[in-house]
Amino acid sequence: MYFTAAMIRSSFFIDGFNLYHAIKRLNEPHLKWVDLMRLMHRQTSPKTETVQAVYYFSAYAHWLPDQRNRHEQYVAALNTSGVQIVLGQFKDKHKHCHECGTTWIQHEEKETDVNVALYVLNEAYRDTYDRAYIVSRDSDLKPAVEMVKMQFPKKEIFIVAPPHLGHSNDLIQVADGKQKIKKQQIEQSLFPATVQDHKGNVVATRPAEYDPPKLPVTA
Which of 42, 146, 157, 194 has the fewest CB atoms nearer than 10 Å to its CB? Predict the structure, then answer.
């Protein structure tokens, strides 16, 4: 009698700001229009794994209307591909310089790292994954990884580094493995210029700032 090995149930937990700023450093804005569902599938072994869920954690920069509009278009596109969106928020902090008397507002992103940690833990308790991929370099997630490994030693945690950036040493010390997103994988995982839902309705349009570079015209 032959038994077929069960597929590994894999879930992804993406720190949106970590990934965004890594892609921004590539100086190729069109790569920001990436389909995270497709990109995360490229991190798995299709013969042995099945993607259970992809979670995207981020927040809208409410004081930057143009940037927020682009972000909203992107989130709408992600929704159509089945990515689950978890939004935090920015808090306004009033700052004051005692030497010069200048005052200003500083915006601090809140909740993303906490939300990632909570979801990784909660989904482990709900037993929705066998392997969790955490796309982040935030060492603050170390306690959450340690907790999962302590409570569920058979579950695996992999740390995925954004392109051209290293892994957090604190995270990989307590994880089961590490992987890296390659620029080529992003290039192969872009959304089209217009994104439609299953009924054919356009739900998101690629911002002009994310248009791919035009190829040179040859004679």
Answer: 194
Architecture of the domain spanning 8-210: 3-Layer(aba) Sandwich (3.40)
Spatial distance between the Cα atoms of 54 and 74, rounded to a whole number of angstroms: 15
Taking alpha carbons only, the member of 74, 98, 99 closest to residue 85 is 74
Q: Domain extents for the chain?
A: 8-210
pLDDT tens figures, 168-178:
999 999 999 99
Report the distance separating Cα 149 and Cα 146, nearest Å.
5
* Sequence-separated (6 or more) residues with CB below 8 Å from residue 138: 15, 18, 113, 116, 168, 171
> How close are the terminal C-alpha atoms of the chain, in Å?
65
pLDDT digits (tens, 9 = 90+) for 10-37: 999 999 999 999 999 999 999 999 999 9
Phi and psi torsions of 212, nearest 5°: -65, 155
Token pair 């060492």: residue: 139
